[in-house]
Each structure stands twice: as structure tokens, then as C-alpha cells.
């Protein structure tokens, strides 16, 4: 029997890429501990802890497959861009979907690192939205919410001003080194 979590899902604040989450992962997981069945809670705990496998969740398995494909394609295109001689360890086991290849190529283009990360995060969120279609109050919706929250937490850790200052410092050091030759 599939459990429905009407109260939990309806009480969660909306998540948006442009705004900090109104709930922390810890608060969300605390709500899950209070309201999920033992079976569903064990699936969530497996997902959160990152243990091998997906706890038997098809949603988590699809996410892991997408995420692994994206990471492998990023590594492959970075290896090609860096002209690494032995690229065999960066070649994905399976051919990624063309959409992932195109997405990574765009992210590796002339975008700033921050813009590239945002592009990839938008794609991750769009994939999660697809997973959640027709799952309104079930465990799939809960898993998708947690994964989105994880992405948005990471987004909030980007500090543009600090990153820009570090970039300018490194660039200045390089320019100074070049001038001294």
C-alpha cells in the first residue's frame, strides 16, 4: 500500500532557485521522521546518508542515474578540454542522452563558472520536476523535495563577491608572475 502524506506535503514551503529555502534540510528531515512510515523513512535515511543503492526507491534510482550521467559527461568533456592523454577513466560506461551532452557542452562554453553551475542546477531541478509529475502527496514528492532542497542549499553557498575577489586575486598573481619574466 502506498502511503500519502497530505499534511506534510501541503505544509512545505515552495522552493525557488532565486530565493533561499524557507526550511532547512534538518527541519525537513525532522518532519519526515514524525510523519513517514517506517519503510518510507528508511528509504529517506538511505538517500540522505548516501549509502550505496537507493533503498528500493525507483525515484531515487532515476535521480542517481541522471546525476551519474551528468557527472560522467562533465568529467569526460573536462578531460577532453584539458587534453588529458588517458581519458579512459573519464569515459562514461554508457552513452549519455544527447540532452546531457548538449547541456554539458553549453555549461562548458564561455559562461562564467557561476552561470555554468546555475545552468546545471536548473537542469537538475527540471529533471526532478519531471520525476514529480503525477506524484502529489506520496514518497516520490517527498524525495524530490529533499533533492531540490539539497540543490538549493548548495546554490545558497555560492558567494559571488567572495568568488569574484578570489578570481581577481589569482588573476593579479598570474599577471605579476608574467611581468616578472
Radius of gyration: 20 Å
Largest sheet: none
Span of the ends, CA to CA: 72 Å
Uncertain stretches: none
Shape: elongated
Per DSSP, the total helix count is: 8
Number of strands: 0
User: How large a portion of the residues is in β-strands, by DSSP E?
Assistant: under 5%
Element pattern in H and E: HHHHHHHH
Structural class: mainly alpha
- The overall pLDDT, averaged over residues, is 86
Short description:
The protein has 181 residues and is an all-alpha fold. 67% of the residues lie in helices and 0% in strands. It starts with 5 loop residues before the first helix and ends with a helix.
Question: Care to describe what's here?
Answer:
The chain is an all-alpha fold. Helix content is 67%, strand content 0%. Helix 2 packs antiparallel against helix 7 and helix 4 crosses helix 5. The termini are far apart. The model has no long low-confidence stretch (mean pLDDT 86).
Amino acid at each position: 500500500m502506498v502511503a500519502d502524506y497530505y499534511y506534510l506535503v501541503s505544509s512545505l514551503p515552495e522552493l525557488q532557485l532565486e530565493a533561499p529555502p524557507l526550511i532547512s534540510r534538518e527541519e525537513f528531515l525532522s518532519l519526515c521522521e514524525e510523519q513517514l512510515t517506517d519503510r518510507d523513512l528508511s528509504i529517506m535515511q538511505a538517500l540522505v546518508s548516501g549509502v550505496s543503492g537507493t533503498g528500493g526507491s525507483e525515484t531515487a534510482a532515476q535521480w542517481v542515474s541522471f546525476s551519474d550521467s551528468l557527472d560522467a559527461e562533465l568529467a569526460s568533456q573536462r578531460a577532453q578540454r584539458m587534453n588529458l592523454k588517458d581519458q579512459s577513466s573519464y569515459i562514461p560506461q554508457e552513452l549519455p542522452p544527447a540532452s546531457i551532452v548538449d547541456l554539458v557542452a553549453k555549461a562548458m562554453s564561455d559562461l562564467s563558472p557561476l552561470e555554468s553551475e546555475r545552468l546545471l542546477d536548473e537542469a537538475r531541478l527540471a529533471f526532478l520536476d519531471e520525476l514529480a509529475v503525477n506524484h502529489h502527496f506520496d514518497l516520490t514528492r517527498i524525495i524530490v523535495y529533499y533533492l531540490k532542497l539539497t540543490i538549493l542549499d548548495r546554490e545558497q553557498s555560492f558567494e559571488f563577491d567572495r568568488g569574484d575577489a578570489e578570481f581577481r586575486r589569482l588573476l593579479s598573481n598570474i599577471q605579476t608572475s608574467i611581468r616578472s619574466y
